[in-house]
Amino acid sequence: MKIVGVGAGPGMLTQEAARAIRMARLIYGSTRAIDLVREEIGPGCNVRVIENYRELRELPAEAVILSTGDPMLSGLGYLDGEVVPGISSMQVACARLKISQLKVVPITVHGRRMDPEPILEEVGRGRCVFLLVDDSTDLLGLCRLLEERDLSRDVAILTDLGYPDEEIRKGTTARPPRSGGLASVMIGDLGF
User: Fold this and answer.
1) Which of 32, 53, 65, 69 has CB atoms 3.0–4.6 Å from 88's, for a disulfide?
2) Is 62 left (phi over 0), alpha (psi -120 to 50) or beta?
3) pLDDT in tens, 3-25
4) Which residues contact 96 (CB under 8 A, 6 or more apart)?
5) For 75, which DSSP code?
6) How much is the average pLDDT of 106-110?
């Protein structure tokens, strides 16, 4: 089985990933992942939308599983099989904001309950924190907590990275930008 990162948005597919997709005869992926690579899928390839992520471990060895972004950043890289890396939303966010990845700590809260303590600890150490968030993430509460702990920092919310309607909203923990839906968030000394 191969787990192939398809990038964070259009045009972010690596040559290695494109080659794996072209050679595949059985592909599984989300609708979004399939749309990102549709032009690379060969004729006669059986393409299936993932219905149940819990069943992915039971797929045949020849299956290629598409993972948006990079499989090793909140993706499907936990599955057994070869991982073909992709361009992650964190890479794109760092490039857009001109922040070195060496200064960034990724924390995923998308689909999980947010524990603010690791975020507060990393920000307190002078690191930038990259968060993958969704509608259930209490970003305003996190910003209030950072302010209460005297950890005022810049905040950037990045949505639809790589797509024509990509948006970057900038603010601070005292005046955070509006967030909604799936987004990448960077908190730290971002230089604006």
Assistant:
1) 69
2) alpha
3) 999 999 999 999 999 999 999 99
4) 158, 161, 168
5) S
6) 85
**pLDDT value at residue 192:** 86
- Residue 162's contacts (CB-CB under 8 Å, 6 or more residues apart) are 7, 8, 9, 10, 11, 12, 92
Q: Which residue has the tokens 């890396």?
A: 85
- CA pair distance 123, 58, nearest whole angstrom: 40
Fold: same for 2-87 and 90-188: no
Alpha carbon distance 131, 173 (integer Å): 14
In this prediction, residue 113 carries a pLDDT of 83
> Which amino acid is it at 53?
Y
CATH 2.60.120.10 corresponds to the domain 2-87? no
| 3-state secondary structure at position 109 | coil
Superfamily holding 90-188:
Tetrapyrrole methylase, C-terminal domain (3.30.950.10)
Are the C-beta atoms of 18 and 45 separated by less than 8 Å?
no
For 46-95, write each residue's pLDDT tens digit. 999 999 999 999 999 999 999 999 999 989 999 999 999 999 999 999 99
3-state secondary structure of 87: coil
> To 10 degrees, the CA torsion angle through 59, 60, 63, 69?
30
Contact 5, 67 (CB under 8 A): yes
Region 109-137: mean pLDDT is 91
- 64, 102 contact by CB (below 8 A): no
